[in-house]
Each structure stands twice: as C-alpha cells, then as structure tokens.
Amino acid sequence: MATQIFKKLSPGAALFRRTKTTSAQYVASRARDPTFEKLMEKYKNLLKVISIQDLILASNSTPPSVSLDFLHRLSQTLHLNRGPAAFLRNYPHIFHIFNHPVKLQPFCTLTPAALRIVRLESEAIENSLPLAVTRLVKLLSMSLTKKLPLRAIFKVWRELGLPDNFEDSVISRNSDVFSLQDGNEPNTHFLVLNDSEEFKDCLVPAVEKWRIMECCKEDCSVDRTEIQYSFKHGFPPGMRLRKNFKVKVKEWQRLPYVGPYEEIRVGGIKRTKNGVMRMEKRAVGIVHEFLSLTVEKMVEVEKISHFRKWFGIDLNVRDLFLDHPGMFYLSTKGHRHSVFLREAYERGCLIEPNPVYEARRKLFDLVLFGRRGWIEVVIS
C-alpha cells in the first residue's frame, strides 16, 4: 500500500510508523489533546442540534416545525440515544415543543433566539459571497484537472461557508468562472474552473502568511531558506518529543515540495525515496490548505477523502493527519472522525474568527447554555 511506503520513507512520519497494528489501533494510540477533546465532547451535541434544525427549516409548515414522531423514527440516524423528546428538552433556548392544534400530537419548532441566529448566519454567508467564490476557485485550482465532482462539493458546502443554494447563487451567477459538466455516469456532474486568471493573486497557500510573519519578526533567528518549506507546529501537551524525532521533523521541514496550486505531473514522479517524501509533503500541503479554506478550520475526514483522487493524493488521508500531530488534531468524538488545523485554534476557539464562524458560535453558546436560566425565563 502507498500508505505503508510513505510511513517507511517519510522522515516526519517515521516515529509514527505502524508495526503490525490495525487502523483502529493506530487511531487509538494517538496523543490526546485535552483542549480539543473537551471541545469535541460539547461540539458533538451541536452537530445533533444542527441536524434537527435543518429538518425543521426544511419543513413546509408555518412556522417551520416537525413532529416528535418523525424525529423518533430518525433517532438512530441522529444518534438520539434517549429519544428526541429528552434531547430537545435539554436545549429549551433552541427548541420549543408544543401540541399541534390540528394534528393533536407534539411538534417541535425553533425558538425566536434560534431563529435570530439562523438569520444572522444567513446574512453573514450572503455578505461573504465574494469570499465563497474565491474559496471555490482555490479548491478547484488544487485539482489536477481543475474540476471536481459536484457531489463532493455538496459534502462540504457548509464547511466552505457556501449558501445552501450555491448552484444558483454562486455557480450560475459566475458563469465566466465556473461551469457544470455532465459525467460519464447518469446523474453525475462536475464543477469545472473556466478561468482563474483574475484570481491568480489569490492562489497563495495560507501557510505563506505564517512564513512571511516568521521571517519579519525582529527576533527571528531562522534563515529564510530554512523556513521556505516549513509549516507551523504545535504538539499536544504532554507528548514526549524525543531528540531523534525532533531531528527528523527538522529535516522534513527543510524538504522542498510542490505547492498545492503549482502544476504537477503525478505520472512523472519517480518512486524514489526522495520522490515519495516530496509527494507526501505535497499531500500535507494540500490538506493544510483545504482546512485553511474552511470556515471553522475543521472538517470530517470522510468528507475530505472524497477529494483525495482529484488532488492526486495517493495516501490514506486519516493516516496523514495522524502522522503529523504537530499540524493536525484528529478527534473521534460524536460517531465521526474530525480533523482540526491546530495552528488556527487557541483554547478551543478560532484565533482569527470570521462572521460566519461567529454566528455559528452563538448557536454553540446556546448548546453550552443548556437548560440554565430556563426556569427564570419561564417565571418571568
């Protein structure tokens, strides 16, 4: 397997090489970060809240609502172990349960506070449409063929801060930049990048910003040639960094590689030790840039795997994240594997928040608030 080849040859990944272990054991053996683990422990309930919220907003009723019986049938899919009623009552600031006057059964709708947050997020997304166009251009520019399956884009539309009608509001309105192409199979379509000339100044990897800032520091003692191919690292607290490992990471940092927006002929890459190492580092650069394009600097591993072939990544993406714990953090909370860009977070929050993230954070705050203050609200 390609993954095994990389693990044997990559200096940065050498200390994390698996020896007769299963993939599950490799995940379980990773160094834990208490801050990210605590964040995901709470975030997994937000994901359930968002799933129910989407179902409510998709209903045709006025006001938007769904029956508890309908949610009960989806309990297993939504991971509502104690049933929908018990879950909804934990978040009275978000959900309101009422008896439907006509159907004479309990229904659930969103509270005024939750609806305000929905509108706030919608406005933030609408105001940042130019940024959404740039994100799509960057995503397509990383593809070897400058096109991606539309179904893969649908997997990450929320992560990229796209409106739910992005086919019309982004793609159709920018027909000079994007076009849709039919696939070889029925009901398959590709999003194609027509022209990225006007965006060429934007096709700069996010890591370059950090490299420039590091070089411009007054107390910078690192030579520019040494930081030219480096990435920011921050390892989980308590992780033992042996001297041999530090040396290998330093060697990996200096290794030249082809950037995510640079042209490359994958078929022309020699399967030598150096060639494999460079391709592994290019894959790291691509997933680093992918995460940088997301609103919350995090994504489900399963979702990013849909782009692997199109980005020319001949690796198991999950193992790639595990091989570089100084750059990425993999969490298994909430019945899913989610990956965070470590450098983008501090104490469980984005260091550089954006309007869409801030709107979503308000909903997260209501989730964290739980039932607190609810009795006082009812009495008043």
From TrEMBL:
Residue ranges of every copy of the PORR domain listed in the record: 32-371
Superkingdom of origin organism: Eukaryota
InterPro entries, alphabetized: PORR_domain (IPR021099), PORR_fam (IPR045040)
PANTHER family listed in its UniProt record: ASSOCIATED SALT-INDUCIBLE PROTEIN, PUTATIVE-RELATED (PTHR31476:SF15), PROTEIN WHAT'S THIS FACTOR 1 HOMOLOG, CHLOROPLASTIC (PTHR31476)
Protein's name according to its UniProt entry: PORR domain-containing protein
